[in-house]
Write a structure and sequence with these properties.
Distance between the termini: 23 Å
Largest sheet: 9 strands, mixed
Shape: globular
Number of helices: 9
Number of strands: 11
Length: about 350
């Protein structure tokens, strides 16, 4: 048993050093190329409208606010200033979303975003995005990369297609630190010893973002009040959570397997599903020793089996907001197909670790 475990870990480490690292290197190269173009577009936007200041800065070889959705798809979060005069309200009526309401006694004119405040005093995510989309469309025509970048049509999101190869979504957002959403107040679960109190404090200090984008839970059926809502996102908190042990290595292997074998019709699975399942696996295996390098194979198998179970049940709850289903709106046939493919993959890795050389 121990010999089989060690063999699997050996082949997974080899896979990580070869396939995962080359994936990372290729994505880093793409990110540099893509960010040059996006920065140029955002510079033009800022000239037209100084309220939209580019926050796409490189720090320690990372771009703040950039998320990799797949090797050809990215999201850049553009942090806006001056949320101060608004109260953050998440009453759970829209899973995964919250609203920003003008604080009592504050005048609209005190806000930097005065013309985007609705009659009932809400700062409208949709109105801000709509204005931003117009500005980006104008900037694309003016910027020095205009030959290689164009707007993606037929969407209310702000998406750029670059060199006909990459798609980048630029999402206006507010960074919320020092508060934790009510809809995530149940976390951490009292009966689970992971993460420890220090890590919990660090995660909560990272806070969350409010994004101006289509809500998962609404899926096209938005009333105007709902489209004024902002989407909760916990990228930095989630990254902080997965520090230590072989957690990040495990996630890297899962992302690489997804890119190579689970990029399927109907796009049932993305990197975020993998990240979510690693977090749940940490709860199931709360001891640090469970994430020792020697346990990489066991953790990977556990996550792949959990993924199959989620695909068969057609439900993958968000880690911090379990009322939000990350499979919402995905075609059932695509989820079934992904379950079969994941099962083939898991069986192959478990019964013949050497097959990782070809995967």
């Amino acid at each position: 048993m121990i010999a089989a475990q060690a063999k699997l870990v050996y082949h997974l480490n080899k896979y990580y050093n070869e396939k995962c690292q080359s994936r990372k290197a290729a994505i880093s190269k793409t990110i540099r190329e893509v960010c040059k173009v996006v920065s140029d577009v955002l510079k033009e936007v800022e000239v037209q409208e100084p309220r939209f200041i580019s926050s796409l800065n490189e720090m320690d070889n990372r771009y703040e606010g950039l998320e990799v959705i797949s090797p050809t798809e990215f999201e850049v979060v553009l942090y806006l200033n001056q949320m101060g005069v608004f109260n953050f309200v998440d009453d759970g009526s829209l899973p995964g979303c919250a609203v920003l309401k003008l604080s009592d006694g504050r005048k609209r004119s005190m806000s930097l975003w005065v013309e985007f405040i609705t009659a009932s005093g809400y700062l409208s995510a949709r109105k801000i995005r709509s204005r931003f989309q117009t500005l980006v469309a104008q900037a694309v025509d003016k910027c020095s990369y205009r030959d290689v970048v164009k707007m993606v049509a037929d969407t209310s999101e702000v998406k750029l297609r670059i060199r006909d190869r990459y798609v980048v979504q630029i999402t206006p957002a507010f960074k919320c630190t020092g508060i934790w959403p009510r809809s995530a107040a149940h976390w951490p679960l009292p009966h689970i010893p992971w993460p420890g109190p220090n890590r919990v404090a660090e995660v909560k200090a990272e806070g969350f973002n409010l994004l101006s984008k289509e809500c998962y839970s609404l899926n096209g059926k938005q009333s105007s009040a709902e489209s004024d809502a902002w989407v909760l996102q916990f990228a930095e908190a989630e990254n902080r959570l997965l520090m230590g042990g072989c957690r990040k290595k495990c996630l890297s292997v899962l992302k690489t397997l997804r890119d190579r074998h689970l990029e399927l019709p109907g796009q049932p699975l993305n990197n975020y599903h993998m990240k979510t399942l690693v977090s749940y696996e940490c709860e199931k295996h709360p001891r640090e020793s469970d994430w020792d390098e020697s346990c990489l194979g066991d953790r990977l198998n556990g996550i792949l089996l959990q993924l199959i179970s989620c695909l068969q049940c057609r439900r993958c709850p968000h880690y911090f907001l379990p009322n939000l289903d990350l499979f919402q709106g995905k075609p059932h046939s695509a989820l079934e197909n992904a379950a079969k493919q994941t099962w083939r993959l898991a069986r192959e890795i478990l019964t013949n670790p050497k097959s990782l050389e070809k995967l």
